[in-house]
Design goal:
The complex is a heterodimer of chains A (about 130) and B (about 110). In chain A, a hairpin with a 4-residue loop joins β7 and β8. In chain A, strands 2, 4, 5, 6, 9, 10 and 11 form a seven-stranded mixed beta sheet that branches. The radius of gyration of chain A is 15 Å and the shape is globular. By secondary structure, chain A is an all-beta fold. In chain A, about 0% of the residues lie in helices and about 55% in strands. With about 110 residues, chain B is an all-beta fold. Classes of the chains: A mainly beta (about 130), B mainly beta (about 110). Chains A and B meet through β5, β9 and β10 of A and β4, β5, β8 and β9 of B.
Chain lengths: ~130, ~110
Protein backbone atom coordinates (compact mmCIF):
# COMPACT_ATOMS: atom_id res chain seq x y z
CA UNK A 1 0.00 0.00 0.00
CA UNK A 2 1.08 3.58 -0.60
CA UNK A 3 2.88 5.11 2.35
CA UNK A 4 4.33 8.58 2.78
CA UNK A 5 6.20 9.30 5.99
CA UNK A 6 7.45 12.80 6.76
CA UNK A 7 10.24 13.66 9.17
CA UNK A 8 12.47 16.57 10.12
CA UNK A 9 10.01 18.91 11.77
CA UNK A 10 10.74 20.75 14.98
CA UNK A 11 11.21 24.13 16.61
CA UNK A 12 13.49 26.57 14.82
CA UNK A 13 14.31 30.24 15.31
CA UNK A 14 13.28 32.86 12.75
CA UNK A 15 15.85 33.24 9.99
CA UNK A 16 17.22 29.73 10.45
CA UNK A 17 16.92 26.70 8.17
CA UNK A 18 15.29 23.29 8.36
CA UNK A 19 15.12 20.33 6.01
CA UNK A 20 12.09 18.06 5.78
CA UNK A 21 12.07 14.59 4.27
CA UNK A 22 9.35 12.28 3.03
CA UNK A 23 9.99 8.56 2.61
CA UNK A 24 7.77 6.96 -0.01
CA UNK A 25 6.89 3.30 -0.41
CA UNK A 26 4.29 1.06 -2.00
CA UNK A 27 4.39 2.64 -5.46
CA UNK A 28 6.81 3.53 -8.26
CA UNK A 29 8.05 6.80 -6.82
CA UNK A 30 9.85 7.87 -10.00
CA UNK A 31 6.56 7.90 -11.95
CA UNK A 32 4.73 10.53 -9.89
CA UNK A 33 4.92 14.24 -9.25
CA UNK A 34 5.26 15.02 -5.56
CA UNK A 35 4.13 17.97 -3.49
CA UNK A 36 4.45 19.70 -0.17
CA UNK A 37 1.25 21.15 1.29
CA UNK A 38 1.11 22.94 4.63
CA UNK A 39 -1.52 23.82 7.22
CA UNK A 40 -1.04 26.49 9.85
CA UNK A 41 -2.57 25.68 13.25
CA UNK A 42 -6.35 25.94 13.03
CA UNK A 43 -6.19 27.13 9.41
CA UNK A 44 -6.80 25.74 5.94
CA UNK A 45 -4.56 24.01 3.44
CA UNK A 46 -1.89 25.86 1.47
CA UNK A 47 0.01 24.35 -1.43
CA UNK A 48 3.77 24.92 -1.10
CA UNK A 49 5.67 23.28 -3.96
CA UNK A 50 5.69 20.53 -6.58
CA UNK A 51 8.47 18.61 -8.32
CA UNK A 52 7.87 16.64 -11.48
CA UNK A 53 8.31 12.88 -11.55
CA UNK A 54 11.83 13.07 -12.97
CA UNK A 55 12.94 16.16 -11.06
CA UNK A 56 13.10 18.20 -14.26
CA UNK A 57 10.94 21.04 -13.01
CA UNK A 58 9.72 22.59 -9.78
CA UNK A 59 7.08 25.17 -9.00
CA UNK A 60 6.51 27.14 -5.82
CA UNK A 61 3.87 29.18 -4.08
CA UNK A 62 4.74 32.88 -4.09
CA UNK A 63 4.89 32.81 -0.28
CA UNK A 64 7.94 30.51 -0.29
CA UNK A 65 9.61 31.20 -3.63
CA UNK A 66 13.30 31.98 -3.22
CA UNK A 67 13.39 30.57 0.33
CA UNK A 68 12.28 26.94 -0.07
CA UNK A 69 13.68 24.29 -2.41
CA UNK A 70 11.95 21.03 -3.22
CA UNK A 71 14.04 18.09 -4.40
CA UNK A 72 13.82 14.34 -4.83
CA UNK A 73 16.06 11.29 -4.95
CA UNK A 74 14.36 8.66 -7.08
CA UNK A 75 17.03 6.10 -6.21
CA UNK A 76 16.07 6.40 -2.52
CA UNK A 77 12.34 7.10 -2.95
CA UNK A 78 12.74 10.28 -0.96
CA UNK A 79 11.25 13.76 -1.27
CA UNK A 80 12.82 16.74 0.50
CA UNK A 81 12.04 20.35 1.32
CA UNK A 82 14.88 22.68 2.22
CA UNK A 83 13.47 25.66 4.08
CA UNK A 84 15.68 28.71 4.53
CA UNK A 85 15.07 32.13 6.08
CA UNK A 86 12.17 30.77 8.06
CA UNK A 87 9.51 33.13 9.34
CA UNK A 88 6.88 32.86 12.06
CA UNK A 89 4.22 32.57 9.37
CA UNK A 90 5.86 29.37 8.10
CA UNK A 91 4.70 27.61 11.27
CA UNK A 92 2.55 24.75 10.02
CA UNK A 93 2.10 21.05 9.68
CA UNK A 94 3.84 20.10 6.44
CA UNK A 95 2.40 17.24 4.43
CA UNK A 96 3.96 15.48 1.49
CA UNK A 97 1.44 14.35 -1.06
CA UNK A 98 1.46 12.35 -4.26
CA UNK A 99 -0.01 13.86 -7.38
CA UNK A 100 -2.71 11.69 -8.86
CA UNK A 101 -3.44 11.25 -12.54
CA UNK A 102 -6.06 9.14 -14.27
CA UNK A 103 -6.92 8.93 -17.95
CA UNK A 104 -10.09 7.48 -19.41
CA UNK A 105 -10.47 7.62 -23.16
CA UNK A 106 -9.63 11.13 -24.32
CA UNK A 107 -9.99 12.68 -20.86
CA UNK A 108 -7.18 12.92 -18.35
CA UNK A 109 -7.75 13.97 -14.76
CA UNK A 110 -4.68 15.41 -13.13
CA UNK A 111 -3.31 17.82 -10.57
CA UNK A 112 -4.97 16.43 -7.48
CA UNK A 113 -3.47 14.85 -4.37
CA UNK A 114 -4.38 11.19 -4.01
CA UNK A 115 -2.18 10.15 -1.08
CA UNK A 116 -0.94 12.17 1.87
CA UNK A 117 1.54 11.60 4.65
CA UNK A 118 0.64 12.13 8.30
CA UNK A 119 2.47 15.46 8.40
CA UNK A 120 5.34 16.93 10.40
CA UNK A 121 5.04 20.07 12.52
CA UNK A 122 7.39 22.99 11.97
CA UNK A 123 7.31 25.74 14.58
CA UNK A 124 9.22 28.94 13.90
CA UNK A 125 9.68 30.82 17.13
CA UNK A 126 12.37 32.60 19.10
CA UNK B 1 -4.19 33.35 -9.00
CA UNK B 2 -7.59 31.70 -8.93
CA UNK B 3 -9.36 32.13 -5.59
CA UNK B 4 -11.79 29.46 -4.39
CA UNK B 5 -14.54 30.55 -1.99
CA UNK B 6 -16.44 27.86 -0.10
CA UNK B 7 -19.87 28.29 1.42
CA UNK B 8 -21.20 28.03 3.95
CA UNK B 9 -18.32 28.32 6.38
CA UNK B 10 -20.12 26.02 8.79
CA UNK B 11 -23.02 23.67 8.04
CA UNK B 12 -25.02 22.17 10.89
CA UNK B 13 -27.00 19.07 9.98
CA UNK B 14 -28.20 15.82 11.50
CA UNK B 15 -27.25 12.27 10.51
CA UNK B 16 -29.45 11.06 7.67
CA UNK B 17 -29.85 14.53 6.18
CA UNK B 18 -28.50 15.69 2.82
CA UNK B 19 -25.54 18.07 2.68
CA UNK B 20 -24.65 20.42 -0.17
CA UNK B 21 -21.31 22.22 -0.04
CA UNK B 22 -20.47 24.95 -2.53
CA UNK B 23 -17.16 26.09 -4.02
CA UNK B 24 -17.02 29.12 -6.28
CA UNK B 25 -13.95 30.06 -8.34
CA UNK B 26 -12.90 33.64 -9.13
CA UNK B 27 -12.50 32.60 -12.78
CA UNK B 28 -13.33 29.55 -14.83
CA UNK B 29 -11.41 26.40 -13.95
CA UNK B 30 -11.04 23.11 -15.78
CA UNK B 31 -13.33 20.43 -14.38
CA UNK B 32 -10.57 17.90 -15.05
CA UNK B 33 -8.38 19.72 -12.54
CA UNK B 34 -10.87 20.15 -9.68
CA UNK B 35 -11.02 18.05 -6.51
CA UNK B 36 -12.62 17.73 -3.06
CA UNK B 37 -11.02 16.52 0.19
CA UNK B 38 -12.23 15.57 3.65
CA UNK B 39 -10.18 16.25 6.77
CA UNK B 40 -10.91 15.05 10.28
CA UNK B 41 -9.22 16.50 13.38
CA UNK B 42 -5.62 15.39 13.74
CA UNK B 43 -5.63 13.61 10.41
CA UNK B 44 -4.28 14.29 6.95
CA UNK B 45 -6.75 15.26 4.24
CA UNK B 46 -8.32 12.44 2.23
CA UNK B 47 -9.17 12.67 -1.45
CA UNK B 48 -12.91 12.29 -2.09
CA UNK B 49 -13.54 13.53 -5.61
CA UNK B 50 -11.26 14.28 -8.58
CA UNK B 51 -12.14 15.59 -12.02
CA UNK B 52 -15.05 17.43 -10.33
CA UNK B 53 -17.25 14.31 -10.28
CA UNK B 54 -15.19 11.11 -10.09
CA UNK B 55 -15.10 9.35 -6.74
CA UNK B 56 -11.69 8.30 -5.46
CA UNK B 57 -10.98 4.69 -4.60
CA UNK B 58 -12.94 3.48 -1.60
CA UNK B 59 -15.18 6.54 -1.30
CA UNK B 60 -18.83 5.64 -0.61
CA UNK B 61 -21.38 6.47 -3.30
CA UNK B 62 -23.24 8.81 -0.96
CA UNK B 63 -20.54 11.34 -1.90
CA UNK B 64 -20.96 13.00 -5.29
CA UNK B 65 -19.44 16.00 -7.03
CA UNK B 66 -20.86 18.20 -9.75
CA UNK B 67 -20.34 21.53 -11.45
CA UNK B 68 -18.27 23.27 -14.08
CA UNK B 69 -16.76 26.63 -14.90
CA UNK B 70 -16.87 28.63 -11.69
CA UNK B 71 -19.43 26.73 -9.60
CA UNK B 72 -18.89 23.32 -8.05
CA UNK B 73 -20.85 21.33 -5.47
CA UNK B 74 -20.09 18.41 -3.18
CA UNK B 75 -23.21 16.53 -2.13
CA UNK B 76 -23.48 13.95 0.63
CA UNK B 77 -26.81 12.21 0.10
CA UNK B 78 -27.39 10.84 3.61
CA UNK B 79 -25.03 11.89 6.34
CA UNK B 80 -23.35 9.24 8.42
CA UNK B 81 -21.75 10.07 11.79
CA UNK B 82 -18.26 9.69 10.29
CA UNK B 83 -18.96 12.36 7.64
CA UNK B 84 -18.78 15.26 10.09
CA UNK B 85 -15.47 16.89 9.21
CA UNK B 86 -13.97 19.80 7.28
CA UNK B 87 -14.19 19.73 3.49
CA UNK B 88 -11.88 21.52 1.07
CA UNK B 89 -12.11 22.15 -2.64
CA UNK B 90 -8.95 22.47 -4.76
CA UNK B 91 -8.06 23.46 -8.31
CA UNK B 92 -5.06 23.69 -10.58
CA UNK B 93 -4.24 26.41 -13.07
CA UNK B 94 -1.12 28.16 -14.42
CA UNK B 95 1.29 25.97 -12.44
CA UNK B 96 -0.51 26.89 -9.21
CA UNK B 97 -2.67 24.82 -6.92
CA UNK B 98 -5.18 26.55 -4.69
CA UNK B 99 -7.57 25.40 -1.96
CA UNK B 100 -10.78 26.85 -0.69
CA UNK B 101 -10.87 27.96 2.93
CA UNK B 102 -12.95 24.95 3.96
CA UNK B 103 -16.48 24.15 5.09
CA UNK B 104 -16.95 22.64 8.52
CA UNK B 105 -19.78 20.11 8.60
CA UNK B 106 -20.94 19.75 12.19
CA UNK B 107 -23.58 17.70 13.94
CA UNK B 108 -26.72 19.65 14.73
Amino acid sequence: QVQLVESGGGVVQPGRSLRLSCAASGFTFSSFGMHWVRQAPGKGLEWVAVILYDGSNEYYADSVKGRFTISRDNSKNTLSLQMNSLRAEDTSVYYCAREGAYCSGDTCYRYYFDYWGQGTLVTVSS
Amino acid sequence: EIVLTQSPGTLSLSPGERASLSCRASQSVSSSYFAWYQQKPGQAPRLLIYGASSRATGIPDRFSGSGSGTDFTLTISRLEPEDFAVYYCQQYGSSRYTFGQGTKLEIK
